[in-house]
Specification:
Layout (H helix, E strand, L loop, with lengths): L2 H43 L8 H34 L7 H35 L1
């Protein structure tokens, strides 16, 4: 591999890790912010006792809570994958690291699904009650 290709690969790896870090932060930021916005909506715009379709609001809160919980668990599984890889750096096959990487990837997909669901449910609730 040419030296410039190695440098480019190193640059891509750095960009990948920065992007992965930002991904988790952004999901957590949006989920937490949506929870805050929904609480402000209930407090300032419509009274909860006269709101209709409260189940939509509750489901959106649950979705945002799940995103936050999965985010924390995802950090743990990511750290476990890295730790197993460090411990087995000289081995060609590292089943534990691959397993934790796969779990972390699925957690990332689930976070996107639950965040999207929570935002849709919250918007439906707001549209119905305005």
């Amino acid at each position: 591999m040419k030296e410039e290709d190695k440098e480019y690969l190193e640059l891509l790896n750095k960009a990948y890790f920065e992007s992965a870090s930002q991904f988790d932060k952004q999901l957590l930021f949006v989920a937490s912010g949506a929870l805050g916005i929904s609480l402000a909506f209930i407090k300032d715009i419509i009274q909860l006792n006269i709101a209709s379709n409260k189940a939509l609001l509750l489901l959106s809160w649950i979705s945002f809570g799940v995103v936050i919980l999965i985010n924390v668990i995802s950090h743990y599984t990511s750290l476990k994958a890295i730790n197993y890889k460090i411990e087995n750096i000289d081995h060609n096959s590292d089943k534990h690291s691959k397993k934790y990487n796969l779990v972390t990837k699925w957690f990332n997909v689930l976070m996107i699904v639950f965040l999207t669901s929570g935002l849709i449910l919250l918007n439906l609730f707001i549209c119905i009650n305005i």
